[in-house]
Amino acid sequence: MRHFPGDHLKAIRLHGYGGIDQLRYEETEDPQLTSPVHVLVKLKAASVNELDVAIRRGRSRAPRGFPHVLGSDASGTIVAVGSEVRGVKPGDDVCLYPATSCGVCDACRDEQEHMCGERTLLGEVEAGTYAEYISLPARNCYPIPVGMSFEEAAALPVAYTSAWRMLIGDAELRPGEWVVVKSLRPGVTAAALEIAVSVGARVIVTSSSEEALARAARLGARYGIDERAADFVREIRDLTRKHGADVLVDCAGGEGWCKNLSALARGGRLVAYGPAVANPAQTDLRRIFWNHLKVLGSTLGTRADFGKVLNYAAGARARPLIDEVIPLKDAARAHERMESGKGLGKIVLSMESS
Q1: Which of 234, 252, 232, 253 is nearest to 242 (CA)?
Q2: DSSP 3-state assignment of 287?
Q3: Domain limits of the chain?
Q4: Does 19 score more than 90 pLDDT?
Q5: Is pLDDT above 60 for 179?
Q6: pLDDT for residue 140 is more than 50
Q7: What is residue 166's DSSP assignment?
Q8: E strands along 124-237, which residues?
Q9: What is the mean pLDDT of residues 115-130?
Q10: Deepest in the core among 90, 105, 207, 240, taking most CB within 10 A?
Q11: Sign of the C-alpha dihedral, residues 52, 118, 113, 279?
Q12: Cβ proximity of 336 and 20 under 8 Å
């Protein structure tokens, strides 16, 4: 165990399940290298995900105990490395792949670690990125694309890697196809909109927020559907001239699930990610086999997917959509903003302004 000397450091620590009052900005233990294959990263920015809110509310995997540091996404600068670390060094600016896995199961050996039964994200069980420093495996550190800020890099890992996996890896999206992104919100669905537009797909979004629909249009969506009033299936059929959606992304679940199948084109792909509503959904199996449909479950992508996201961001000079940058000490306000459903981009916490 190697200790990294310094002043007492600050973090946002969750003291129990509940509201934003459970998030407190306070001193925490000095950072330590706990393994010879770990690095110590001085964090510059972290972004907020819906998972963070779910953990705080007691609706996701439980942390080891309280107080607990949330956060899966981050970027920063390596300041120390373990004795067996190769390929990265102090002074490197890095973006963090947020998942760890067992490393020995069939999925891990096949480099499909997103399917590992023991996979966890930073901030779920172990301490996360709402802090000034973090110790983690060196293999989770990737160079930040040239010209990208720490805040932009911190917005990429969970949302954009998940969206990439859904659209490119699982649904095998092709240019010119019709894509429907349901219940547009900050995070994965907003990232899916950006990626789909960038590969030349024709995108339709749905939302109950007029602000979100207007923002989506500026980002390249062909059409927007107001979820509160429209006949979803009829709207999709009309807008695509009866063709239907080639790919439909649903991160909400619930009663509207069965309508998704009716909105798909023949050979269409329905991708489900992190449903917000856990109640059972009815499925019309006859429609699936008659129309050659595919129903795909998707979670955070692999390290290879993350590398592709970074290459895409560098090559296309694409930048993640950021809603607001908030000082780390004001993380409670960031959670409040996330739960309001306002905005569309990622909410980023800055350590530099705390």
Answers
A1: 234
A2: helix
A3: 2-156+320-350, 160-297
A4: yes
A5: yes
A6: yes
A7: I
A8: 133-137, 141-143, 178-181, 202-207, 223-226
A9: 91
A10: 207
A11: negative
A12: yes
Q: What is the mean pLDDT of residues 292-304?
A: 88
- Tokens at 130, concatenated: 């709402």
- Strand 9-14 to 23-28 pairing: antiparallel
- Encoded amino acid at 241, one letter: R
2-156+320-350 placed in CATH 3.30.420.10: no
Q: What is the pLDDT of residue 313?
A: 87
pLDDT over threshold 60, residue 7: no
Cα within 13 Å of Cα(60), Cβ side: 20
Give the span between the Cα atoms of 43 and 12, in whole angstroms. 13
Of 298, 350, 305, 304, the residue nearest 329 (C-alpha): 350
DSSP 187-246: THHHHHHHHHHHTT-EEEEEES-HHHHHHHHHTT-SEEEETTTS-HHHHHHHHTTT--EE
Q: What is the DSSP letter of 132?
A: S
- The pTM assigned to this predicted structure is 0.91
pLDDT band at 6 (very low <50, low <70, confident <90, very high): low
Is the pLDDT score of 16 beyond 60?
yes
Digit-coded pLDDT (tens) for 222-266: 999 998 877 889 999 999 999 999 999 987 766 677 788 899 999
Instruction: Give the tokens for residue 218.
Output: 């500026």
* Count of alpha carbons within 13 angstroms of residue 324, beta-carbon side: 15
- What sign for the dihedral angle of Cα 45, 50, 54, 59? negative
Q: Which residue has the tokens 């459970």?
A: 22
CATH class of 160-297: alpha beta
Torsion of Cα atoms, 246 then 250 then 255 then 257, to 10°: 30
Comparing C-alpha atoms, which of 50, 112, 137, 60 is closest to residue 302? 112
Nearest to 245 by CA among 297, 298, 202: 202
β partners of residue 327: 350
Structure tokens at 22: 């459970």
> Which are the contacts of 169, defined by CB distance < 8 A and separation ≥ 6?
298, 301, 305
